[in-house]
Amino acid sequence: MTAESAPKWRRLEPDERREQIFTCAAQLFGERPYAEVSTSDIAARAGVARGLINHYFGTKRELYLAVVKRALTVPYVAVAQLPSGSVEERTNAAVEWFLDMVSKQEKMWLAAITPEGIGRDVEVERIVDEADRRSADRVLQAMGFAEDDPRWEQLNALVRTYGGMVKAAGREWLVRGTLSREQVRTLLSTQLLTLVKDVLPQITPAPR
Amino acid sequence: MTAESAPKWRRLEPDERREQIFTCAAQLFGERPYAEVSTSDIAARAGVARGLINHYFGTKRELYLAVVKRALTVPYVAVAQLPSGSVEERTNAAVEWFLDMVSKQEKMWLAAITPEGIGRDVEVERIVDEADRRSADRVLQAMGFAEDDPRWEQLNALVRTYGGMVKAAGREWLVRGTLSREQVRTLLSTQLLTLVKDVLPQITPAPR
DNA sequence: GACGCCTCTTGACAGGTTGCCAACAAGCGG
DNA sequence: CCGCTTGTTGGCAACCTGTCAAGAGGCGTC
Fold this sequence. Notes:
2 copies of one chain form a homodimer.
Chain A: H1 14-31, H2 39-46, H3 50-57, H4 60-73, H5 87-104, H6 106-113, H7 122-142, H8 152-176, H9 181-199
The structure holds a DNA duplex.
């Protein structure tokens, strides 16, 4: 019998261990809702003591936030520069680009737009809002609005409401299959065009 | 000293007590996310023993479901018979009515449209979907579509996507204050009108 | 006016979860 | 080979939830 000094556990670099726990947590949060994933589950899958999770992430909630944040950041990274044609052409191109992007990142995108866990949490809301605002900025830029427009704040808010429709349409298309890609394209193009041509121009500069 | 037999607690009719607890729960769920409202909090506000909540509603989750359900149902029950004028008049009336309703039930409505408080719960999802579908039905009826239209399923889905915008707009208006009621009115009216006049007519009968 | 009973209401208990922290030990540097 | 840094463990205390038998409010009856 070789006197193996069998270590009960292996010591890892902080970043490495942190990433390992993060990965396991992401898997579990993808499988079950937030409340049904206990830190014990995460620790078990990572083959680690439960306390270590708190050591690295502080709180179960903070760990969840980290997961959501990464999931939301990835999808909206590279918005290709849109063609500089008429408004109609640009809206169509934007919608088409969007549909392609979603097609490729289906699961990722769906997971990101339905933070399936902690809800109405200030921090989660902030993270999601940040992503929404950034994509609304891109839409406004693509539609030719000047970035120093005094109405920017409200224009952005209006585009964000359009984002609500986009998410809902994505769910109808991808999850429920009640709408075809073509129907979604028509819907989103038409509505975006109306938004840009009929609604946005009516907005008066910020009230104060 | 009058020998007052001071009762430690008052005995109420089941329906009455149930309603009282329900109301307090609705308030709290409107103030904080699901996870941050303990049954103790609800019991405290209702001036009642915690166990009584389980007696009436079984589970915290069931109580929450009841709250969400009512919040989603009440608003859409009495869609007053809309005036039978032009499409424009009817959309305006519908949007205006909706804004009034929301103003009155602000907290309740907000809590209901962001039921992520419990996280991708199948039951919650079902309830929300049910309500969304029902209100979409009402919108279609009000806009003069025949209930046996073969495209009904898809028309309904399209209106549901509009619902996504409605919810987003409500949040911008009530929660963040980035949009005024007037702006929301303009947005929702214009977009609904476009949906009804430009998008819906393009939908071809169900593919199979 | 007093009593009895129905059932509404309470309070305590068990199981489970989370955050914290002091002690332990892996494994590199001297 | 030994000591020290620090990654890691395991148990503790607080809290929350669902259950249940016991207690008491108050209506109906005599």
